[in-house]
Each structure stands twice: as structure tokens, then as C-alpha cells.
From TrEMBL:
Principal cellular location given in the protein's record: cytoplasm
Reaction catalysis annotation: (2S,6S)-2,6-diaminopimelate = meso-2,6-diaminopimelate
Functional pathway: Amino-acid biosynthesis; L-lysine biosynthesis via DAP pathway; DL-2,6-diaminopimelate from LL-2,6-diaminopimelate: step 1/1
Known partners and oligomeric status: Homodimer.
Protein name as it appears in the record: Diaminopimelate epimerase
Enzyme class, spelled out: isomerase
Family statement drawn from the similarity comment of this UniProt entry: Belongs to the diaminopimelate epimerase family.
InterPro entries per record: DAP_epimerase_AS, DAP_epimerase_DapF
Cell compartment(s), UniProt: Cytoplasm
Length: 310
């Protein structure tokens, strides 16, 4: 069998990296403050390969915003966004945003001594989905993710569902709702935990219509009762664009909570606990200074080890 790994990884020989995760969504993190590393998609795929590389759901490069065109654009409006999270999926594709990743990114910056974040203060990070503001929270870090949006607003307004999703283990296509958190998501509600466990996510679910740049797909089961101790509770599995099934997806948890809250209608809570295979994240819907409702995601961030590419 053809093994493309050695040549692709040799481009990174000697590179120091850290490995970290947020509720099991795992990342290779590298510091490249001056934006000197030109990382090809094949190199990312080799590094993230579960058997032939370090193994991860994605690569996160910490680069000064001024060294990326996307970062320079953000700096005009938010000069405090010194650091930019350059996020790549395990297959090498670029993503706009990663909710678990941005917490781990900040944890990495602090551990490397590249930034400071005292309790009660916040740090502004540049991403391809705009700036994200992060503070410490009881469960780790809380991120102001900005507002959520329907991807197909006219269709969603007309019928509360705008697409269908088919996956192994599900006998018929299921109605779904596509939600943007800066990156695309399609949320499907299933009947119960047995159906959630039986859904096969080895292959990408078929979504119709697919959002313009592809989509991440969240399979969600509302708890019974849905609301306990003032918070909504849901269980979720996810198939990520550019990766496959992952243990968690932060932007996916936000999209799932937004969709279930929308379907639940008036009186649905603003506070949500989203259980994923790798743990639990919290999602809150809060009024923001810009007059819009923002989504706040919070959860843990862990660094596991550091290494050097051979
Ligand atoms: N796991 C991430 C999302 C990573 C990007 C995603 N696969 C995409 O292509 O949009 C998260 O925690 O949000």
C-alpha cells in the first residue's frame, strides 16, 4: 500500500508541537508567531493521521494576526486580536471556526507564555469566523461565539426544517435544520438514545440540500424531561466535515442547542448542557452589547503532551 507519510511529514521535521483536547475533540497545536510555516494540506493530513502521524481531529496554528490576510482584515476593527487561530481539519481542509479548538488554543497560548489571562479579564482571538472573546469560567473557558444564523432562512421560517439527512442505521431520511456558527452545521433530532447509538457515522451522512461549503452533521436527542434545574439537556453525536465522527464539537453543540431551542418554542431555556461522547459542554444564549443575541460556549481545555516531529 502507498504510504505518503514520510515525505509529507519531513517538511515539518524538528517542529515542536503540543497535543491537546476539549471534551475529547483533539488537536495538534503549533506556535508560528511570524507566520513562517507554509503548511500544505497533505502535511496536515499526515500529522493528524491516527496511525501514521501524531493523530488528531485538526491542526491549530497560532500566528500573529498581522501575518495572515484574514487576520489583517480583523485587526482594522479589533486591534486587540493579536493572535489568530489558523484551524485545519484532519484532512487538511481549512475551517472558519472550532469551538473546542479556540478554548484549547487559548490554553496553549497561556501555557507557552504567549498571552496572559487573569480571572475576570478576557482575551480576543482572531478566527476566520471573526473575533471571539474568551474568559476563564468555572468549567474551563467561556467563549463569546457571536450570533447563530439559519443557513436557509426562508425555508426554516416556513417549516422549521429545511433539509433531510440520511445515515447508516436510520431507515428513512430525517428532517433537519441547517445552522451557521460561522461554520456550517445541520442538526437532526432523533427519537431516543438507542437510535442515537445505532446511527452509523463511519461514512458521511447524506444531507439534502447541502450548504454551499459542506456541513458538519449533529444527531441530537433531547432529554426527558428536556429541562432540569433551569437548563435544557441534550445528547449529541457528530460527524464533522473534513474529519469523520469526533468525540465532541463545540460549534456543533451551539448549533444543536440553537435548533432544539428553536423547535421547543416560547419558554425554552437559555442555558443548555450538551452531552457528547467526550464529556459535557455548556451553551448559553445571552443578550450582547451589539443588541443581538449571542451564543456562549464553555467547557474544559487540556494539554496532554509536547513532542517534536522526527
Ligand atoms: N470540532 C470543531 C469544529 C471543527 C471544524 C469543523 N470540522 C468544520 O469543518 O467546520 C468545534 O469544536 O467546533
Amino acid at each position: 500500500m502507498n504510504n505518503p507519510l514520510p515525505d509529507n511529514l519531513s517538511a515539518l521535521s524538528g517542529l515542536s508541537y503540543a497535543k491537546g483536547h476539549g471534551t475529547g475533540n483533539d488537536f495538534v497545536l503549533i506556535a508560528d508567531p511570524d507566520g513562517l510555516k507554509d503548511i500544505e494540506p497533505q502535511t496536515v493530513a499526515a500529522l493528524c493521521h491516527r496511525h501514521l502521524g501524531v493523530g488528531a481531529d485538526g491542526l491549530i496554528r497560532a500566528v500573529h494576526s498581522e501575518h495572515l490576510p484574514e487576520g489583517r482584515e480583523l485587526l482594522a476593527a479589533a486591534p486587540e486580536a493579536e493572535w489568530f487561530m489558523d484551524y485545519r481539519n484532519a484532512d487538511g481542509s481549512v475551517s472558519e471556526m472550532c469551538g473546542n479548538g479556540v478554548r484549547v488554543f487559548v490554553h496553549f497560548l497561556l501555557a507557552e507564555g504567549l498571552a496572559e489571562l487573569a480571572a475576570g479579564e478576557s482575551l480576543t482571538i482572531g478566527t476566520r469566523a471573526g473575533v471571539k472573546i474568551i474568559r476563564r469560567s468555572a468549567n474551563g473557558y467561556a467563549v463569546d461565539m457571536g450570533p447563530w444564523e439559519f443557513i436557509f432562512p426562508a425555508e426554516a421560517a416556513a417549516g422549521a426544517m429545511d433539509s433531510t439527512v440520511s445515515a447508516g442505521g436510520l431507515e428513512v431520511p430525517r428532517p433537519a435544520l441547517s445552522v451557521s456558527m460561522g461554520n456550517p452545521h445541520t442538526v437532526v433530532a432523533l427519537a431516543g438514545l438507542e437510535e442515537l447509538a445505532a446511527t452509523e457515522l463511519f461514512a458521511a451522512p447524506a444531507v439534502d440540500p447541502v450548504p454551499a461549503n459542506g456541513t458538519n452533521v449533529e444527531f441530537v436527542v433531547p432529554a426527558e424531561p428536556l429541562v432540569a434545574d433551569g437548563a435544557g439537556h441534550i445528547s449529541m453525536r457528530v460527524h464533522e466535515r473534513g474529519v469523520g465522527e469526533t468525540q465532541s464539537c463545540g460549534t456543533g453543540a451551539c448549533a444543536a442547542a440553537a435548533a432544539i431551542r428553536y423547535w421547543a418554542g416560547d419558554g425554552a431555556p437559555d442555558d443548555w448542557q450538551v452531552g457528547v461522547p467526550g464529556g459535557t459542554v455548556r451553551v448559553r444564549f445571552l443578550p450582547a452589547a451589539d443588541g443581538r443575541e449571542h451564543v456562549e460556549l464553555s467547557g474544559p481545555a487540556v494539554l496532554v503532551f509536547r513532542g517534536i516531529v522526527a
